[in-house]
Write a structure and sequence with these properties.
Length: about 775
Amino acid sequence: MTAAAAAKPALSSVKKAVAAKPPAPPAPPPPPSKVESNVTLWSFTQPNGGKLAEAAWPAVVNGTLAATTGDPAEEAAGPRRLSAFLGLGANLRGLAAAIEPIVNKGALDPKDAPKDATDLKLTQNELEKALAVYLGLPIPPLRPTEWKVGRRVILPIEVEIVPPAAPTWKVGRAQMREWARLIKPEEEVGLQLTVRLPVEPLPATTEAGHRPLELKAQVATRLGTLTKPVAKPEEVAALGAEVHANVLVNPFEGIFYQIELMRQLRRDRPELELPVTLAILSGFSAHQAAVTGWTMGGNALFRRLWDALRRKGDGVPAADKPAVAGARALLAGALGLAANGTAAWYSPTERGPSVPPVDLFLAPAQLLRKSPNGKDVYLTVVYGRLMAAGVRDNTGKYYGPAALGSMDLVDFVGDDPAFLGPAPSSTLLQCWDLVKKIAPNEGKLDGLRLADAGIVSIGIQQWTIAADDELTVVLYQFMRMAPDHFDLFFGIRGMQLRVWGLADTTEPTPDKIDEANPYLRPRSRPDTPETWRSAYASKPAGDWGDAGTGPADDGVPSRVKLVWLKYSAPGGPVETPQPIRSGTAHRWALFGGVENAAKQVIFDPLWGGISRLASQTSRELCTAQLQTAVFRFQRLWNQVNGMYPTTDAPGGKQYPFRRLVSSQFFVAAVIDAHINVPGLVAADLDTAFRNTYARKPYTLVGTEADDHFLMRMAINFVLVRRVYKRNKDSRDHNIVVLHDKPVIPATRDKPARDPGLNATPGSFTGWPAP
């Protein structure tokens, strides 16, 4: 054996040494990620998702907690406590990490503490165990259906208020350490499963079982269980208790069901609207109401309940007056309503409330995802629902999301265009036919663009909100059809709308409103015979209204002013609604636009998510789109109704618009251009006429139009029409491919369908008669 070999230990000796050495402890798990810690803390998380600065925290004191369980059923009788609302991806590990700075404030770090110190910071593992015990979570873990986005978790952090002293947050570190010791070693594996269990996302309103019509049916079924003609008190109490319990557990999950419930009560069981409202609010402590009203979902419900209470006015039965007074005071405090006298409050649409509601948020790693073609998709959260606002896009200096959408208008309408009314005229039907054929050039019902000077553009004709004659008109019609849905998506964010005059910054008088809105019931002469009605207007349609009634049929406005009501700062001046000037520069900041150092305006995707969810959730918003799309024919007629070619030379031949633009193909091309760049249509028609006339003069044979000339003019218009350069080729192509496209024959299951645009002059007869 060589010296080197003799120096090496035998293999058996190595094995014995390894066996004698104790194994190294497992490495501690990595700290929770920001996704796991995606929680919203009441009074701690700010409306923009930021955190309350530590300097602004109430004093944190360590003592003995009065409550030893986070059971919601015991909350009303216990002390006030902080609450957390779980966001997408959150779990118990992340919740423990989120509250650690509060729980451990003032405690000593074990690494630096003296040997005999007792008030030490809790470790991450101790916090996880203490929360599991405090919340009574089962080990093995919860079923996923019990752990959803928006779930409220009552925390072991008590709020002590002893006037006149400032509030304090009390924690019980010694108690929590004892709770942590209750977890047995054999339960450790199950605990780790529990604390890592992520919350389930809330279903989208486009998913089966959660679509608007299905939701309506579910509510109708529930109300159908109430005795008629007079519901029993215990039935009303049970219904109110259901909503009450659901709101306390998760104020985001059931908000659309709850709004639909209140709508059907007003329409179908109006005598129950007030009793059910009182039953829902019964049992809310002031603290529970404050926590609920702080959330976007709870705030939206409370605004609707305030409307139910206010609607009764002084007509409340004497027996209900004490309960109504108490309910009003409860909601006023929870919403932060501005006082109007000594025992009354302004509604949340009259003066700015002082409680801006807070939605859930996404962690930085959740803000983008890749589309199938590799593009970045902006994500956001609205009422706890994950929304794809759209792919990253830009036009010039404006950057933000854009989405074609997924809701096809033909699928939405079906074979019966009921939105046009029970017996639509031939004019309306012809216009609707063209609207649906050219719709792919803009977007679907939930289409969205937040990446150009139009600021927010939505729907099948991408109406924009930069001025007062497009999206504000659509949303005004939506507000009339469904004021509850309008408030749910737009009013709660501060948006209001008013019919306006031609002057941008001058408060209009009734006569100025009438001048600017010729197709709306006159404000100065409301009893005028209905000669103001447009042939292109349909009666507002929707499910809102009292029993046997619906939205007022007052015509269609042409100019609607965007008005904004800010939330009031607590203790500061009370905000009032303010009209907003037209123009991109005056409005982009309202919709999340921020200008960077490079002078680029970057839009937050939130308003993209709001707009898309509104279209997916409210059928009335889709109906408002469809009706306004048809009404565009009136707008076009007003803009171009005249004679062509336009000329200053006296005595020159001119021809009426209705004769020149009379084929389906030509009308569709003109309407499509008006959707995209309405201000250039009249001039482009004149150019098309002149270009055609230069090749072949327009002639009449008796009273017959020169069809050959008109067909050439239609093609020339497509060539010269000015639409946004980036999509002119595709936009023109989408119109041209419909030119005389053949009829699809009938089959056993489907009738014949005409997908094309007839190029023959006279095939469209929807213009007003001379």
